[in-house]
Amino acid sequence: MDSLEIWAEKYRPRKLDDVINQRHVVERVKVFVKERNIPHMLYAGPPGSGKTTVALCISEELFGSAWRQSTLETNASDERGINVIRQKIKDFARTRAIGDVPFKIIVLDEADALTPEAQQALRRTMETFTRTARFILCCNYSSRVIEPIQSRCAVFRFRPLSGDDVRAYVMRIVQGEGLKITDKAIEAIIYFAQGDLRKAANLLQASAALSREIDESSIYEAASQARPEDVRLMLEKALSGHFQEAREILQDMLLRQGLMGEDLIREIHRQVYSLDLTDEEKVQLIDKIGEYDFRLTEGGNELIQLEALLAQFLLFSKAHKRR
């Protein structure tokens, strides 16, 4: 296994035609590339859905082997102040590209993390250096990008990736690295990745560091996440009145397995929808989960707050039986 190269980068598509899903974006972008002239663009969508990959594919197809010299990729969540726009980005944008393409490409990842002042400076920079630079802004929430920037860009919405898309990507890596993987392990990766191909690749690489034969348990160990069946059992115990047994399962996950409270409460939220309850009852429990999730984010003790949440499940069950 490569020790210095993350598989998410190693196995990302290099050509637009190889991008997984997102055909509604790729087909329109290919027209711009064919004409060798692209507008400023804003890519919005969930993490790991291919926004940055499409931007880099555009650069590679336009500039060929010299694409790195003509492309600036920066992450606005790390460099989000106005000085980055005024210095680093402006210095790169004011010079012409090498070759027959008359502009450079600036890929601004996590653009929704830019401060309001930086976004105002970016707006002016996009106007001033249009002849020598094209901006591709990637973000999760386009509503956090100011309207003047959105109006200067062609906006593309990326769709969440399906389980089949994640499976195809995982198998690409498995075959490329000569790994062996079980069907249940692939399902576990799909479950934890939630459509994020970057997360899927990192999970697979972390699991392969232990063994080149990957099974379900190695995925759970690499993810440091609770098994869905354990969380479901804990909730069923609490709802059936066996609070002590539910508490023991919770303590095992928190203290012995070392799982985080935030991760557990997210898994509890997922599992509520699969419980044998009416929609109205699920709504009441989701309301409680939201309250205790807020308590955890505000710094509440994980064990105490999650035990209190289990107590709420028990009280809910008793109230339900009395009706």
CATH-defined fold name of the largest domain: Rossmann fold
CATH class (first level) name of the largest domain: Alpha Beta
CATH architecture of the largest domain: 3-Layer(aba) Sandwich
What does the largest sheet look like? 5 strands, parallel
SS strand fraction: 5-15%
Mean pLDDT: 87
Offer a concise description of the structure:
This protein has 323 residues and is of the alpha/beta class. 57% of the residues lie in helices and 9% in strands. It has three domains: 22-157, Rossmann fold; 163-223, Helicase, Ruva Protein, domain 3; 228-322, Zinc Finger, Delta Prime, domain 3, CATH 1.20.272.10.
List the helices and strands and how they pair.
Blueprint: H1 7-10, H2 23-34, E1 41-44, H3 51-63, E2 71-75, H4 82-93, E3 104-109, H5 116-128, E4 133-139, H6 147-151, E5 154-157, H7 163-177, E6 180-181, H8 183-193, H9 197-208, E7 213-214, H10 216-223, H11 228-239, H12 243-256, H13 261-272, H14 279-297, H15 302-322
Helix pairs in contact: 2-3, 4-5, 7-8, 7-9, 8-9, 8-10, 9-10, 11-12, 11-13, 12-15, 13-14, 14-15
Structure description:
This protein is of the alpha/beta class. The protein has 3 domains: 22-157, 3-Layer(aba) Sandwich (Rossmann fold), CATH 3.40.50.300; 163-223, Orthogonal Bundle (Helicase, Ruva Protein, domain 3); 228-322, Up-down Bundle (Zinc Finger, Delta Prime, domain 3). It has 15 helices and 7 strands. α4 links the parallel β2 (71-75) and β3 (104-109). It is elongated. The protein starts with 6 loop residues before the first helix and ends with a helix. The mean pLDDT is 87.
